[in-house]
Amino acid sequence: NEKTIISMPNTDLANGGLVYWMDNYWLIIERDANQTVYTKGLMKQCNYLLKWIDTDKNIHEQWCIIENSTQWNDGETSGSGKIMALGDTRIGMTIARNADTLKFNRDSRFLIDDPDVEKKLAYRLTNRFRYGSVGSVYNNEGIFNFTLGEEQSTKYDNHILGIADYFKYFPKDADEEAEDNSSSSNESNTGRGGWL
C-alpha cells in the first residue's frame, strides 16, 4: 500500500522518515529533490514492528516493511559448480537508515512472524542493499533494503518478546534452562524436532 505525500509549503519530509496516518505507520521511501514550493514523496505502509537486541544489550523496536522476496533469490552453487540450490524462504525488509540499523550485518538475526504465533520464524540477514535501490540513501538519510533468509531458531531466541538472541545477553535462570533442555530432549526422542 503506497501513497504520495506532499508537504505544506516550506516544510520538509525526511527520506526514511516515519509518518503516523490513518492509525498506521508509513515509511517515506522516496523524496523528490525539488523542494522549491513543497516537498513531494512516496510513503509505504509499514506492516511489522521489528525488535532486536544489540551487542550493548539495548533492545530496539522500529517499524518496517516485510515482503516476500523469493523473487530476490541469490542462489548457491555446489563445489562442482553444476548444481544450483535456490532458497525459497527469503523475505525482504525495508527499514529507515539510522544509527541502529547501520549496525546490521550478516550476523544480525530477527524473529519475524505474526505477533500471536507462539514459535516465531527466525531469519538471518543475508544481503545488505544499502545503496542503489528505490528510495535508497541520499545525504545520509533514507532507507535500507535487506534480504533475510529463514534459519532454525536457537535456544537463545525469546519467542515471547519476539527477539532473536535475547538469552545470549540475558541468560535464563537454571530452572528455566533445565525445563527447556528436558522438553527439547523429549522432542528429539519422538522425532518431532526440526524447524520451529
* Poorly predicted parts: 185-196
Summarize the main sheet.
7 strands, antiparallel
Shape summary: elongated
* Percent in helix: 10-25%
Mean pLDDT: 81
Helix and strand content put the structural class at mainly beta
Count of helix runs: 2
Strand content range? 35-45%
- The tally of beta strands, per DSSP, is 13
Sequence of secondary-structure elements: EEEEEEEEEEEEEHH
Report how far apart the termini are: 30 Å
What's the alpha carbon Rg, rounded to whole Å? 20 Å
Describe the overall structure:
The structure is a single chain. The protein is mainly β and 196 residues long. Helices cover 11% and strands 39% of the residues. It contains two helices and 13 strands, in the order E-E-E-E-E-E-E-E-E-E-E-E-E-H-H. It has helices at 166-169, 174-190; strands at 2-6, 18-21, 24-31, 40-45, 48-53, 59-68, 76-77, 84-85, 90-96, 109-112, 121-129, 137-138, 141-151. The radius of gyration is 20 Å and the shape is elongated.
How is this fold's topology laid out?
Elements lengths: L1 E5 L11 E4 L2 E8 L8 E6 L2 E6 L5 E10 L7 E2 L6 E2 L4 E7 L12 E4 L8 E9 L7 E2 L2 E11 L14 H4 L4 H17 L6
Antiparallel strand pairs: 1-4, 2-3, 3-4, 5-6, 6-9, 7-8, 9-13, 10-11, 11-13, 12-13
Tags for this entry?
196 residues; mainly beta; 7-stranded antiparallel sheet; 4-stranded antiparallel sheet; 13 strands
Short description:
With 196 residues, this protein is mostly beta strands. 11% of the residues lie in helices and 39% in strands.
